Amino acid sequence: MSFIKKHAARLLLGVLLFAATAYLAIGFYIYSTLTHSDSGCGLDCANTPNNFTDNWAPSDFAFDQYQVNYWENHQYAGGDTGITLDAWWLPVTSAGAGNAPVVICLHGVRSNKYDQDMLTVAGMLHQQGFNVLLFDQRDHGDSSMEDGRVSLGTREYRDVIASVDWLINEQNIAAERIGLYGESMGASTAAIAFGMDKRIQSVVLDNGYLDLQVLIREELQYQGFPTWLAPGAIWAGTLFAGESLLDPAPSLAFINHYNRPMFAMHGTADTRVLPHHTADMATLGQQQGANLSTWFAEDAVHSGVKYLYPQEFSSRVSTFFANSLSGKRIPNQD
Known about the structure:
8 strands; globular
């Protein structure tokens, strides 16, 4: 009897080990699939700040209204050793940045500075008298390929802080005149950077997400995977790639806000990153006493608020940055 029990226990242990190994193997496959990123600019390589369009689908949007005639290409050190960032610097005039505020624009996952989403926002801001910095996050565009995977903002935020350093040290921009605009994963990256660096004065989060665990479950569902595989994907990323996808988190922006202004928007028809993420931001912001305003744009899809409501988008975003980057407000340092 004891012999049978012993072998039954070994068999059960073997089955459990096999199941755990299989679960992690599937998790790593999903992690690798969801975080894969390619360098370069894909179909958008012909886009520049003064000549860009939507290269993915026919569009009647007037992109030419937001073209910027003068820009500069720069490379500078990223947030970790070996990372070089490739950027487009759009000063208010060819003579330089002057005393105008600066907005750093952060693209989404598997996107880059060539993307019409970023160039449209940059053109809108530039029209309203802002300097704009567009840069390719690591493992995107023309910046360094670290490992060919995105980190959902948990490493990329360090490149945002490096960009702030570059603006202050190389372009002589005062810290109180620097803000962030982020879209989708760029919003997550912006939120983390905002929570980590008090020099950043304000932030706009466009169709972003708050809780990465929730986002990963929803992403799996969107891609057709069972949601119960989400922990396996997260664990596999940690075990096999040394990647912590959950820390630091976008929620830092709402905890370490120091009363700095925040503006979060979301399209109500967004099926890529669900609108509840921005509603959750509003709830957390209220709990934490954050200086947060929100806009839920009716019928706008993912990244589509700017296209469905171009004048209102431009007005809301530029007014927010004009007020928050005036240089007159000093964050509470307590």
